[in-house]
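> call design_seq(struct)
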């Protein structure tokens, strides 16, 4: 049985800001189902949604600090979670990375460097837990220093580093290297130095035994200047060790037949009941109640990556079309203000909820007809997968995981029953509007529309095959 230490900065439902949390829960659950022994390591933030008992396990000393290791389980699962308990660094409320104003916590480098050092102690079985992993699987920049630090150890476990988003790199001023007491030999262009800055991300990219990312297309894209942020050369150099494995989804948590957040369940054989979720949503938010007008939804962090600029530009034209638009999101103030303006001006056609709300995310998925995901780049993306499972047809830009998981509705793809959504190319509001218009035309033909919905609902996006691929990767190491 392979023993895996899965190091991550967020995991659903304990703490979540985005898709990393979903993957950090659903992948380990799937791997354990395939007879692996996966244990999670996360920081003990103040606002964890813990439901299971927590026990003290041990104390480790790293970089002049003593840190307690606590043990709990991922709520309602058998997945063991170790918590890095260092109140001075992690006992902050709210978002794990930024303060209320959206600014990075000032001591992020220190926080996540400590987290990485503790991970190394666990990985080397020096944390008094009597368990040594075969593989340490790290995720995104917050655990990037783990492969670097482990590279100096003798008889160490193998390392895998997964890029969930190359846009967030954990870059800090040069002096941070000394402040964190990092080994001097890491400071060079083939190490963790990046244009005179300290890069946590490079700790993973330069030192991990294998690098993965969350879709095959993104694995190719990040080797180009357009998506690589200057790291494309290193990624090309490591090409043989780099693989894209598509994310799966938790098909129990995201299941319209049993979803705990829905009043009205539905499924493939009861698809007409989906409509009731839509009229309930229209009534709840004072939208014009009409079962025949398509409701477009968007649920996202409100950041440039997600194509919010295209949405804001397209909205004046979009709202001349027979459609309604509901959005759930939190993020950059500029987008929040622009979006709120449209809601105020068109109260019966637009609903903007500037919040982070798990229940509403499920309810919007169930109620909407069409899901918008015009991302400028998208390593994988999960909402297009949730949408397909909920019979909510996605409109996506052809990039990253969106290109790998949504098949454009064309005569040929209708014929072979692969069509699941609408795919457009250009990163422009015009191209987005064209796709929206195409979707409205197909929507008006209810038989055709139902074919699209069912194609998506019948897809198997569970973790089964992707988890198997991770297991093969671990075994090959
Ligand atoms: P990313 O990780 O880049 O944000 P993903 O599509 O992989 O994008 O995952 C986003 C996850 O976060 C999904 O589970 C989505 O439902 C959730 N999410 C995003 N914004 C919100 C919000 N405002 N309220 C509730 N859930 C949200
Ligand atoms: C990142 C990406 C998103 C991906 C998620 C989980 O946050 O932006 O595309 O689905 O990680 O891998």
């Amino acid at each position: 049985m392979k023993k895996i230490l899965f190091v991550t900065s967020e995991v659903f439902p304990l703490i979540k800001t985005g898709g990393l949390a979903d993957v950090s829960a659903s992948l380990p659950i799937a791997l354990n189902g395939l007879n692996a022994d996966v244990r999670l390591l996360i920081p003990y933030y103040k606002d964890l949604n813990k439901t299971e008992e927590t026990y003290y396990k041990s104390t480790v000393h790293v970089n002049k600090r003593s840190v307690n290791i606590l043990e709990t389980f991922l709520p309602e699962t058998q997945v063991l979670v170790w918590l890095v308990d260092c109140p001075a660094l992690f006992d902050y409320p709210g978002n794990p990375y930024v303060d209320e104003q959206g600014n990075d916590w000032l001591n992020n480098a220190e926080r996540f460097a400590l987290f990485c050092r503790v991970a190394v102690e666990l990985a080397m079985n020096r944390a008094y837990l009597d368990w040594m992993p075969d593989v340490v699987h790290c995720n995104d920049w917050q655990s990037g220093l783990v492969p670097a630090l482990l590279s100096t150890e003798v008889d160490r476990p193998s390392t895998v580093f997964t890029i969930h988003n190359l846009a967030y790199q954990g870059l800090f001023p040069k002096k941070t290297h000394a402040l964190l007491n990092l080994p001097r030999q890491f400071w060079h262009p083939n190490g963790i130095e990046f244009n005179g800055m300290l890069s946590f991300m490079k700790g993973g990219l330069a030192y991990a035994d294998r690098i993965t990312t969350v879709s095959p297309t993104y694995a190719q894209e990040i080797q180009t200047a357009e998506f690589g942020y200057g790291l494309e050369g290193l990624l090309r150099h490591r090409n043989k060790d780099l693989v894209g494995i598509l994310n799966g989804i938790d098909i129990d948590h995201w299941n319209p037949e049993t979803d705990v957040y829905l009043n009205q369940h539905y499924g493939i054989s009861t698809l007409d009941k989906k409509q009731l979720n839509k009229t309930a949503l229209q009534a709840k938010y004072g939208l014009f109640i009409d079962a025949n007008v398509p409701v477009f939804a968007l649920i996202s962090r409100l950041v440039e990556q997600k194509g919010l600029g295209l949405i804001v530009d397209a909205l004046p034209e979009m709202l001349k079309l027979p459609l309604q638009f509901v959005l759930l999101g939190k993020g950059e103030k500029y987008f929040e203000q622009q979006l709120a303006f449209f809601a105020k001006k068109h109260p019966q056609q637009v609903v903007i909820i500037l919040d982070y709300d798990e229940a509403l995310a499920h309810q919007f998925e169930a109620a909407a007809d069409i899901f918008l995901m015009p991302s400028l780049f998208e390593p994988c993306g999960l909402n297009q997968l949730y949408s397909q499972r909920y019979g909510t047809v996605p409109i996506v830009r052809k990039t990253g995981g969106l290109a790998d998981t949504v098949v454009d509705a064309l005569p040929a793809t209708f014929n072979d029953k692969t069509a699941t959504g609408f795919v457009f190319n250009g990163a422009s509001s015009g191209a987005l509007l064209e796709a929206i218009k195409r979707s409205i035309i197909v929507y008006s033909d209810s038989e055709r529309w139902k074919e699209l919905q069912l194609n998506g609902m019948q897809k198997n996006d569970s973790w089964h095959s992707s988890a198997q691929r991770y297991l093969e990767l671990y075994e090959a190491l």
